[in-house]
Amino acid sequence: MATYDTSDIRKGLKVMMDGHPFTVVEFQFVKPGKGAAFTRTKFKNLLSGAIFERNIRSGEKLESANVETKSMQYLYKEGDAFVFMDTTTYDQVNIPDATIGDDAKLMPEQIVVEVLFFNDRAVGVTLPNFIEQKVLATEPGFRGDTATGVTKPAQISTGASIAVPLFINEGDIIKIDTRSGEYLERVGRA
Amino acid sequence: MQPAESARHRLGILKIRAAILRAVRGYFEGEGFLEVETPARVRNPGQEFHLVAFPAGQDRFLITSPEHHMKRLVAAGGDKLVQFCRCFRAEEVGPIHQPEFTMIEWYRTESSMDQLMADCEAIVAVAAKVAGQGQSVPVPASRGLGGSRLPVAGPFERYSVRDLLRKHAGITLRGDETPAQMRDLARSAGCPVDDLAGWDDAFFQIFLDKVEPHLGVFRPTFVEKWPAPLAALARREANDPLTAERFELYAAGLELANAFGELTDPSEQRGRFEAELAARKHSGRTIYPVDEKLLSALGQMPPTCGIALGFDRLVMLVTGAVTLGDVQAFPDDEV
Fold first, then answer.
1. pLDDT of A13-29, one tens digit each?
2. Alpha-carbon gap: B179 to the closest alpha carbon of chain A (Å)
3. ipTM entry
4. Among candidates A46, A41, A43, which has minimal Cα distance to A56?
5. In angstroms, how far is CA A154 from the centroid of its own chain?
6. What is the pTM of this model?
7. Are the Cβ atoms of B203 and A35 closer than 8 angstroms?
8. CA dihedral sign of residues B237, B238, B240, B241
9. Nearest CA in chain A to B207
10. For residue B109, which phi and psi values (nearest 5 degrees)?
């Protein structure tokens, strides 16, 4: 396994600590008077998402983590698992419901996602930041209603219910931020 | 920010910086100090293990601090000396580090550490006033409790290093531990250190992880009575050889100043210099000739207290700047 030292630290570096894979999210140079240089580093646990900070002394070694991300296309659901295909090798993998979590409700078939592998096992899926989806069902809005900030639920094809403004109609195409699950704008009209 | 807008903003900061410099000079003039200038290119730029100096021609390096030559002037009879100068430290770039920065360094003979603390309190107060702050200064969210202000009226808090370690890390430090014992202490405080960590590495791991976040949060804080292995150029206390006469000033996440009751014993100083050079040599760092001119001057030096204060950080403190580069005309990446 490769090792890194503090001069290799950069955003996105993947390292192993206490048996867990972490990615660097932030780092900065710190140096107490008369002491060695340290790199104050903020890590995200790639499995749990938990963030923690560590002061790493210059010269300390960090172990690289056997993680990689692959672009994969979501094909279909099969029982409790989602089937994905590697877009370059056409290899298929099944990823269980639990690994994908709530994101499954915002994952239309055919979408290309980033799948994170740790020791060759898929451990997480990252959707593109934005998706565009057709509204399957929503109550008609009141014409001429100019109130702002008023929303109603809209059903999209992936199964999620999104809070949308009153002027959205069935068949409209809307843009959704997958990180927050929030409606952004109408991009097409039925 | 657009380049023109950024330059205008910077000029505003530079005006405040100039006003603070004038006011601090005024303080030293009022105290009867002689302002001096010593060489920036020297044979021995300061040899502390963790400092890296820039080479500056044949047998010369840029100073990391003006300490050696200031002390030679003290030995020559200067009883109150101050210098405002640029210092240079390679490989130091970060939110509160720049490879070029301005140091205020001053010495008082036949004086006390208490007097240097009083100087610091007066300088912070005058700088805050000139910067248009009242009894408190703004603290950016990146360095403390978000949106809060730090009171800067004296007297500042005072804690010994040992008390701080007991309080925040739950450990009792003597100062004569072996490196292995020090690593065990760090681990018992929950600070991860590898087996290569030396005494001071383990110490600073604990200090950074557990102590520093608490320093200077509610008031500027003097951290005094440093353990002997971190004495550097300070003398050890007469009645406690495991403790050095040294203090540091912290405020709002900034280490502002470092003071010594100066070591004037040439043979003890020679021993420390030689140990440092051996450590530098051992790890492949640049080694410098022992500063014999300083050593022979030390014998003539009266009891003296000396201190260095980072001027850029003082400006940061009283303006609420987020980075040290923000208070310089051109930080390193804009040169």
1. 999 998 899 999 999 99
2. 15
3. 0.88
4. A41
5. 23
6. 0.83
7. yes
8. positive
9. A32
10. -90, 160
